[in-house]
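Replying to the earlier thread about multi-chain prediction with a worked example.

Input:
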Amino acid sequence: MQDEPMLDLAHLGHLELLTPKPDESLRFFVDVLGMTESGRQGDSVYLRGWDDYERHSLKLTAAKQPGMGHMAFRARSPQALERRVAALKGTGYDIGWTDGDLGHGPAFLCRDPDGHVVELYYDTEWYAAPPELKPALKNQAQRFPARGVNVRRLDHLNCLASDIRENRLFFERYLGCRLTEQIVLNDGTEAGMWMTLTNKSYDFAYTRDHTGAKGRFHHLTYALDSREEILRAADIFLEAGVPIESGPHKHAVQQTFFLYVYEPGGNRVEVCNAGARLILAPDWKPIVWTEEERKKGQAWGMKTVESFHTYGTPPVEGHP
Amino acid sequence: MQDEPMLDLAHLGHLELLTPKPDESLRFFVDVLGMTESGRQGDSVYLRGWDDYERHSLKLTAAKQPGMGHMAFRARSPQALERRVAALKGTGYDIGWTDGDLGHGPAFLCRDPDGHVVELYYDTEWYAAPPELKPALKNQAQRFPARGVNVRRLDHLNCLASDIRENRLFFERYLGCRLTEQIVLNDGTEAGMWMTLTNKSYDFAYTRDHTGAKGRFHHLTYALDSREEILRAADIFLEAGVPIESGPHKHAVQQTFFLYVYEPGGNRVEVCNAGARLILAPDWKPIVWTEEERKKGQAWGMKTVESFHTYGTPPVEGHP
Amino acid sequence: MQDEPMLDLAHLGHLELLTPKPDESLRFFVDVLGMTESGRQGDSVYLRGWDDYERHSLKLTAAKQPGMGHMAFRARSPQALERRVAALKGTGYDIGWTDGDLGHGPAFLCRDPDGHVVELYYDTEWYAAPPELKPALKNQAQRFPARGVNVRRLDHLNCLASDIRENRLFFERYLGCRLTEQIVLNDGTEAGMWMTLTNKSYDFAYTRDHTGAKGRFHHLTYALDSREEILRAADIFLEAGVPIESGPHKHAVQQTFFLYVYEPGGNRVEVCNAGARLILAPDWKPIVWTEEERKKGQAWGMKTVESFHTYGTPPVEGHP
Amino acid sequence: MQDEPMLDLAHLGHLELLTPKPDESLRFFVDVLGMTESGRQGDSVYLRGWDDYERHSLKLTAAKQPGMGHMAFRARSPQALERRVAALKGTGYDIGWTDGDLGHGPAFLCRDPDGHVVELYYDTEWYAAPPELKPALKNQAQRFPARGVNVRRLDHLNCLASDIRENRLFFERYLGCRLTEQIVLNDGTEAGMWMTLTNKSYDFAYTRDHTGAKGRFHHLTYALDSREEILRAADIFLEAGVPIESGPHKHAVQQTFFLYVYEPGGNRVEVCNAGARLILAPDWKPIVWTEEERKKGQAWGMKTVESFHTYGTPPVEGHP
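Result:
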């Protein structure tokens, strides 16, 4: 009889984004994306979408270069967190415990094989809206802002890595993440992976870094309620002078309706909508995309812009 | 330290709907809702939405009266199914094993305290589309039909019950369902409950049956990708002469964007959209709605039509 | 051979709205509806939607009571304006010339049979956006505001009148307005009329005032690009504490997708969307709705709230 | 004082499309686009969208090569038609009267300077829906089909021409069409024109034919109610194996939300949505786009595919 699925991690909780232009990045996330500032500490500002239940889903930190500081997953229970820590200790991937951060309690840090920092935590601070941000309906975390793009909640992130297979095995074995879709080249090389902890079809993705650099970041994504809102977001980005890299269009992989822009610090940011698509099967069989299939472009035939395959943060010289 | 959540059931798999007008009901589900027939056996026709991954999500069975034959939940693993069966045996709620049905393997039957039949199973048949229904994108179960309302997948169902609290305890203790929202009257009586097994904010709901009857059914619901599609569905129902009971409008409870109609057999059918709303917190604290809050009507103020509080299937004389 | 249609008036240009709470009304139109202030003079503030081509489409004037100050139609040419003035002079409906107002040149005033003031003008000031409101695309009047409901342009208005037929004849004979739909009761009484000067299916409507009062106002309406935006507007009104009277729903008459609220001064305000529906036929035959047909309620069956039939501005005691 | 605008033509009524694969083209328009057949005569099938008020908006005619047979404009009155005929006679552009066709009465034919045939008519047959296609709401021409893309009504067409300026002058002087947007190259050459007879921002467009061929056709366009429906149309085209050339995306010119495909006969077909955008100003000043502005690509930055600039029907060898 097959092993039972490991269900210790509940969902992607937040990520830390590094920016060399902290003031401009902050204005982008608050004024254009419509996020709410929910804390400041040191060189960091904490931000949230109106439906994120935790205090924040984005930690924006001033740094010399853009990129991702760390990603953080919330465990399903204290016991589940302990099990993950026990499994990681001594593997060489483990870093160790921290006291936590604004918004959450003690966290265990580790590194994926490509060097990205991954944080695991359970204790968290539920967002308590101040009076002026209290929603009309009590089953909502915060008032709908009616400002800019009005992003709802953190949806997923995408990292770059030299060896996708190695990272897939790490997230499967140690964190219990489930692969839902992947790209496998004709020579058997894994070129992309989409993994989930939830009924969302992915909580994070990894795609290949062709530059030889390590620990780089591709994009973070906030969810909106409809494709119509993504289209309107494109209008708002255009008016605000935010560079649009690609979209709105529909990915063949995961069928995500996407729109990619660059925030002022240089990081790629996506807004997306997936309609009512969910992965409900507990034994989902990963979809494998071939080289030939990927050459067809996006779902409705748009060719992928070159920068999407090469640009990441921090940027690498010669790879725009 | 608190107990860990029980995660043995994965999701609502299908339900059996009884109809005294099997031919007309079938035409409604196929021609108007846009579902696909995927099997016939005995007095039953098996039906599916284009994104349901299992062979069917609806078993439509000829019967003297409308109502629900049974609801079925898929377990997360064979071991998980065994644990649920072990817990149920001898409680008085258990009925026993069946050999299964078209589309799924052996199933364990039980009854909730109000008498509705609940089926648990693990082995299932993944839908294999015939050539003419193969989708263009391999991560989709079936070709988009482009016919009628084009319902995507089974979303949830709603039963009526005399004692909501008793049923809540049954689903929490024996099946590991999690309460996300409820209505509690001023005298402490529970009047409605919304429970989930997934990241959807509910997979089924129970609301009070004021007639004294047992085991009655309120509605089943298919999901569409956008609110715009729900609005278009209203146009299509109007053109097809399908009686619209209520909506499109937005529920305050769960914020579901809803539209209720009656299929020819007399059962209430809903199409809904919830946007990007998901329950990601593993420790979600149930939202409790009071009598006063419910008196405000739906989210945008529409008064709930009386029949919504009284009509169920099978119908009870004197309660239209 | 039939007469040729009279085409002297081009479209509804603006209206003057009276409010006893000018500051709160202004905040509603700017912060909630997302309009832009484009001038002040005396007790009036001039406002515009982001796609109105003239300087303003709404003149908001402080007054003791809510209601409509006047409605204004732009003529198609100077010659066309002269023809309309010549036709009106001496009819008893004519008031006379004014020097114009902020945003437009000399205007001829008249009164409809119910006493509403109607202004005709040709010379107008095209809106010139200041640098911070310049749009990214040069075929757009102003930057998309990304604030609140983001109303696009003035769509239509609705007055109340004791005798609909008399007012219809006035607008047909003297102003060349074309009737597209009407309600005619079983005894032959006309109970509502929808008239147009454009390819929009109506630029204004009149419905019956049962109170015996004269010159009252029912509502003004701004257009949004999609039904999805109307639904989002409902969320925004809910969050802002703006009272929603009715909707979102679809009228049977004209098939308008509507949402009615009250602005702080007491006037009814609508946001609407009509999709791609246009009246292209130059010889459109008016649609006549009977009493029986109107009793069916709105397009999808929602019953019309009572206040919609009785409340107008200024309010009349005993008719809430 | 300036001349008054000429308003003799009301709107684009229909066009005749030539196809070398009449059966496959017919299946495309009926099964995929969701149009309704409303007549047959000779080698032609007559088709309509569900909101076209005339009997047909498309005459599909078997021919050796794809392309446009003729375009047809409905006059605003019999007198208006006579005035246009009087103006055209003897200009060298005039062809003469025909007895009419299925669906409309006597028509006057002429040729634009590039050789496209233009038909003018007034008498028309209003569509009378057979019982099974009667709509639920009497202000609608036909039941919503709920099949395929469900195109609503003919929106516009686009021809190719060697000399845009010459064609612009023809349509302005003889037919009273109004220019709303145009492309003018740095050397003063006009490279594209968008003209209207209505409040729609264009009823037809002409863009440059670089091949030296004459009388060629670029595309015809049907309108849908929302951008969401255009996105769903892309899914439906993908499933049906219809080649998508470009989109969905937003044009900078006219801000049309577009999606271009090829019908089986080789003609380019577009579905579009323009939201609530209308040209209400009777004295609209044409928007002039420069070479530099056009190089920016579409509204949200997508580069225009090469075939869009070169392919037309009938095709010209060496210009795919």
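Chain D touches chain C through 54 residues (CB under 8 Å).

Feel free to reuse this layout for your own posts.
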